């Protein structure tokens, strides 16, 4: 179960955030703020304490806090984002994480290693890490080495198409795994109870499990139904403005 969640308010500068889909247009900041309010409300309905950090205008993508760290029960691992414009987002996050962990339990991914938290999926005591355009081999190596210090294990999944590992995967506990796109046929996930997300709803593979509730992006009926059929309570949250920046539900928080 998660006790804490950290989120960061979107900045006005988010309209300049990184995107691979300029055709979707620029995010509407006011609408993004409202969606963020609702996201926080949904999290609070899952019995977690939500720490809300102020917006940081210096970093257009800084509302996507998930990429700055991986937080486990036993330690916090500060990432080293591969996207140049995002690399210093970790600095403020370190200060926040110090409110939850003593310094000897805080680890750091360092250059030449890069890692973004969106590439990490926790399944119990095992962590899958995506080798991607943002997370390199050395970042994966350092990450697994640090995990092992705390009794965890890790393994690498090479990404071919999507931005982050969790762009196409979401672990919903109880061996249930949402899978989309390039992950549908990957052998490494064949022993999970896979819930396959159809091509036209691929964005909805980025859901989050929070204490037996699953937050699902608004408007993806097939995914919502399939998750409900597994017995979860579902809360829909509209993330249309974050989608324009390749971001989704998991990217907007750190859960631990
Ligand atoms: C980026 O390209 O870094 C942001 N526009 C989106 C980050 C999404 N984060 C995530 O999937 N964990």
From TrEMBL:
Gene3D superfamilies from the UniProt entry: L-arginine/glycine Amidinotransferase, Chain A
One Pfam family named in its UniProt record: DDAH_eukar
Domain of life: Bacteria
InterPro entries, sorted: DDAH-like
Record keywords, A-Z: Hydrolase
Keyword Protein biosynthesis attached: no
Keyword Hydrolase attached: yes
Stated family: Belongs to the DDAH family.
Protein name: Arginine deiminase family protein
Organism: Romboutsia sedimentorum
